[in-house]
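Can anyone check this?
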Amino acid sequence: MSLTRPALKLTHKGTSVLLAAAVEAAEAMGVPQCIAVVDEGCNLMGFIRMDGSRVLSIESATRKAMTAATTGQQTGNIAPDKALLLAEATSGRMTNLLGGVPLIVNGHIIGGIGVGSGTGEQDLAIANAAVSVFQKHIEEGQTA
């Protein structure tokens, strides 16, 4: 049995790619957003609050990112009973609101992005757009 395991880590450059792509998608949609990016340990790597976004969405965007990074799944799709348990077990730090997407590279969860301030569907579309750009960079051989 091995005593170590390989690990991929999200860098500030990868974080910058995600934030820029999310802002571009939000601007194209005309919906100012709060955008949070966390690493695999739920440490905040980057955050942007666009002009006109809701102040209380700072927390929800961050919690969406943390939930996606922790569970490895998009928020909003977690079974209701499991979502309630996660919220209770984490003192409300995890959420099942739409808009959180995990960052997965080569089968490893390296973090999550959370978007909040629009409708759940808008938040999710913007998060997915950012992850698509990020994945394209990975596929082109750019390190994140």
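Reply from J.R.: I decoded it. The mean pLDDT is 94.
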